[in-house]
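To: structure subgroup
Subject: Chain for Friday's discussion

All,

I'm putting the inputs and outputs inline so they're searchable in the archive.
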Amino acid sequence: PPRSRSSTSMINWIISWSIRNRGLVLLGTAAIVVAGVWAMLTTPLDAIPDLSDVQVIIQTDFREQAPDIVEDQVTYPITTEMLKVPGARVVRGYSFFGLSLVYVIFEDGTDIYWARSRVLEYLNGIRQQLPGGVEPTLGPDATGVGWVFEYVLESDSLDLAELRTLQDWYLRYQLTAVPGVSEVASLGGFEKQYQVEVDPERLRAFDIPVTRVTQAIAAHNVDIGARVLEMGGREYMIRGLGYLEDIDDIKNVAVGATPNGTPIRVADVATVQIGPAPRRGAADLDGRGEVVAGIVVMRFGSDAYKTIELVKERIAEIESGLPPGVRLRTAYDRSDLIHRAIENLREKLIEESLIVALVAIVFLLHFRSSLVAIITLPVGIRISFIVMRAIGVNPNIMSLGGIAIAIGAMVDA
């Protein structure tokens, strides 16, 4: 057919032109190799393909409230308002005991930070409709596959409460500052609380409502600023220091007075102690007991492999500052899976190149002919990385596995 003859003549012309211009062909190949190496070094590496939607999560705490109350007063108003957000494809609301979650899913290709700014804009217009003291917050700027690293804290000298305090107030802040990290979530252990357990009989005896106890503690836990006093050519700033520092300070807070003017303290109507916050779950490692864990969540669009390496470097730096007897152990590391995927591609490339060279030498009895496939395979792979870099596809198990499979088709060609 004319079309087949046209294709054949085009291929013959390309071959003839390449033979006549070997220098340009070699120069172009060298440019492709350099661009492919650059693409391989700069393309973000991951093990799991990110197929999750572009979504923004709104979390709202409405403590001690039943799911139906949370649904009516928090989830429903936020959900209906989010329907107005431009680009929003689906809005899903979930109500739990004391917690509301609203998922705003956007059209594919929407910039995640543009979506978050639009959600914040519409949230500002609905805050007045929510109950007093309820503040909705946005979830981390991460995806469903952002869980890239996890570690646990072990110790022979510190208990679970002390390990959780170390995680929340030291390790978490150190790792959150690592580039590419969106959030470091704490798991397990006991959260430290200052607990005030009021005695109903004492409150009734002094005729004091329980709300006055909470108001008194809140009012006494503030610093008060006053004017500047000028004296002797100098200025002195006057402040009232009122922050509560320990249990005794809380016990001595006045909640009222008797008819003869004797102060009624918190210690007179309640028991003040340090205890663990109520929890609804625990973290266990290898079935040997509870541990305190930290989950590192990667930021949207970041390089998973680079982020994990930076986290490991920071952990190596802060391990020297941990209390004696505290050990930080890695529980999950996605970089191992990334290494295995890359190593698999490297092995397949070497194996197939050697087999192709052997087959070409045995059947063609010509060593130079085998060089055609041996040189073309790595060049073709580098071209694939250039295309992946251009369209925003990162190397992962699926894409690297596809390249490994495609090597066979390239050999046949």
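Points worth raising on Friday:
The mean pLDDT is 88.
The CA atoms of residues 178 and 310 lie 7 Å apart.

D.
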